[in-house]
Amino acid sequence: MFVFISQMPILETPRLILRPFREEDIDHLAELTANPDFMRFTLGPYTREQTQGVLDKFLSWDKAGLPSPFAVVLRENTEVLGYCGFLHHPEVPGEVEIGYRLDPAYWNRGLITEAARTVRDHAFEDLKLPRVISLIHPENIPSRRVAEKNGMKIEKEITFRGFPTLVFAMTREQWLAERGAG
Question: How many angstroms separate the most distant Cα atoms in the chain?
């Protein structure tokens, strides 16, 4: 029997563990994606079947050796609170997005900023990616703040999946310069 071992590392922060998704995460992930607040600024809540499709995509990227989203897990109780990590969209070829979503019960605690910074550092330090972006609806002020705290700047506005979308971006060179100044 073949057992797949994830290519992804486990990243840790003071309050979080960022680990590869697993098939057994589907129940909690389906609960999250059924929540209209969790899915705000997208096409709306997902069914379990749609969520399974998303999880399958995340797992297939990992199996293919592509960086993919991490399950965001609270250290104190190992509960999956959402995701943060790398997304690949055919609509923006050649770009790697740092995307994130967090259980609304945990908003306004700095958790997703903590996760996004760790993922950004992993992108530039370990994976040596030349650039990362975040695609954010202009009215999504909390996500915009996370991107800004992550050192990203608005580069342009595009239409992404039918919606106006701000492209926040950061290069590895900018990241290195920021670290050197700190």
Answer: 51
Cα(first)–Cα(last) distance of the chain, in Å? 49
Q: What percent of the chain has pLDDT over 70?
A: 95
Distance CA 43, CA 40 (A): 8
How long a stretch of residues is the chain? 182
Strand partners, 18: 11, 72
> Does position 4 have pLDDT exceeding 50, yes or no?
no
CATH topology for 11-181 is Aminopeptidase (3.40.630)
The pLDDT tens digits for 56-74 are 998 888 777 788 899 999 9
Partners of 69 in the β-ladder: 85
181 token code pair: 């100044």
Structure tokens at 102: 């967090």
